[in-house]
Structure formats: C-alpha cells, structure tokens
Amino acid sequence: EVQLVESGGVVVQPGGSLRLSCAASGFTFDDYAMHWVRQAPGKGLEWVSLISWDGGSTYYADSVKGRFTISRDNSKNSLYLQMNSLRAEDTALYYCAKVIWFGELLGPFDPWGQGTLVTVSS
Amino acid sequence: DIVMTQTPLSLSVTPGQPASISCKSSQSLLHSDGKTYLYWYLQKPGQSPQLLIYEVSSRFSGVPDRFSGSGSGTDFTLKISRVEAEDVGVYYCMQGIHLPPWTFGQGTKVEIK
Questions:
Q1: Of A14, A68, A72, B91, which is least surrounded by CB within 10 A?
Q2: Is the pLDDT reported for residue B98 higher than 90?
C-alpha cells in the first residue's frame, strides 16, 4: 500500500524556520515526482512546490519562492520542505502528494498524506 | 496564473438524486498533445483530498462509476448520477497545463439533505 506520512509541523514565530518531512513507502520513491500542497484553516487547496524524481527540477508558487526549498533524499524515501522567513499567512496544513504517472512531472497527484499543521504565530 | 471558478460553492442533495458541479478555467486546458489537463478531487470530512477524475473524464482507480466528468476547452462538469451518503465533502477541480502553478477551484461543498 502506498503511504505518505508528513511530520515536522509545529507552532513557530513569524520570521522563524521549519523543515517538514514526508516519509514515503509502498512504491519506488525515486520513480515519481512529488508535490507539497497546503490548506489554510477552513480554506481551499493551494499548491506550494514540486520536485522531479531525481531532484533535478524544482518549482514553487510565487507566494513561497525564495523562502521555501523543496528537496528529497531518495536513499531515505523522504521528501522535505525547508521553510524560512515564515509569515502568518503560511499557517496551514501541509500535504505531500505523489504524481500518479511514473517518471512524469505533469499529471494529477494521488495519494496525499494526512498532512502536518504549521502555525505561524507570536 | 490560471483561475479556476467552480459553481455552485455549496450543494445539498437528496440521496439517490443526481448532482452536478461546474468548473470554468480562465484559459483553455487543451494541450498540443490532444489531452486536456483537468482533474477532480474529493476531500471527505477530516480526510486528505483523493483523486476522482483525470484528463476530464477518466475515472481514477477505485472510483465508482456514478462519478463522471465531461467538458472541453474551458468548461467542465463533474456529475454524480445518484448521490450516496459517502459522497459528502468538498469537491475541487484543478488544472495541470499552465504550470507553474497548479491551481485549484475554490471548492464545492456537497451535503446530504
């Protein structure tokens, strides 16, 4: 069974930093591109970032560009999101999600993890 | 960025009755490869989103055939032929062609009467 488990979400002060992790299992992790998507409390879905299967290509939403860095360690079947200069508007449940097509950057995402909550507040 | 607009934003449906959700994109989602990169997700209460439909009308693995997608260009529709209690939640459309960013509709909340 494909499984994605996020961790690392905590309460952090504005301007602070945080690293989220996503542990993947049940599939050949280094064959698939991976996304981070977030959902502010009571709000809709906002795409955050994408990384290719080999980590060679990365993409970011304008709202996080220059502050967040996506990375992966295929030897550990893990995806990461380094979040710096955090703002109140970054408060959200952060999901990692797998692209469904082997070797593709494009395509829909499934499954999604259960999410990890990041709260930016003083 | 591509804007995805869903209507209605909420829907109350009697079990066994049909339901329909519209999604309009600000630009055509038809790619030069002939495919249209429009997807539908369902987020059930307290759960993560799950993929229902990809490329307008293809049901993802395990999705019941009461769900169907249609449309072309900029106008798309998700239909549930006979709503069941387990179909409650928020439905999102998403575009996957004009990237980045991947963009979602605002969501349509479906409730049971």
A1: A14
A2: no
| Beta-sheet strands, E only, within chain A | 3-7, 11-12, 18-25, 34-39, 45-51, 58-60, 68-73, 78-83, 92-99, 109-112, 116-120
**CB–CB of A115/A6 below 8 Å?**
yes
Give the Cβ contact number of residue B110 at 10 Å: 20
Residues A112, A1: Cα–Cα separation, whole Å: 13
What is the spatial distance between Cα A51 and Cα A36, in angstroms, rounded to a whole number? 9
Distance from CA of B42 to the nearest CA of A (A): 11
pLDDT tens for each residue of B37-48: 999 999 999 999
Binary contact (A45, B54; C-beta < 8 A): no
Query: What pLDDT does A105 receive?
Result: 87
**pLDDT > 90? residue B99:** no
Q: Compute the nearest-CA separation of B69 from chain A (Å).
A: 15
The nearest alpha carbon in chain B to A44 belongs to: B106
- How many contacts does A have with B, using Cβ atoms within 8 A? 58
Percent over 90 (pLDDT), chain A: 96
Mean pLDDT of all residues in B8-34: 97
Residues of B in contact with A45 (CB under 8 A): 41, 43, 49, 92, 94, 104, 107
Are A96 and A113 a contacting pair, CB within 8 Å?
yes
Stretch A15-42: mean pLDDT, rounded? 97
d(CA A117, CA A119): 6
Kindly report the backbone phi and psi dihedral angles of residue B78, in degrees, each rounded to the nearest multiple of 5, phi listed first: -110, 130
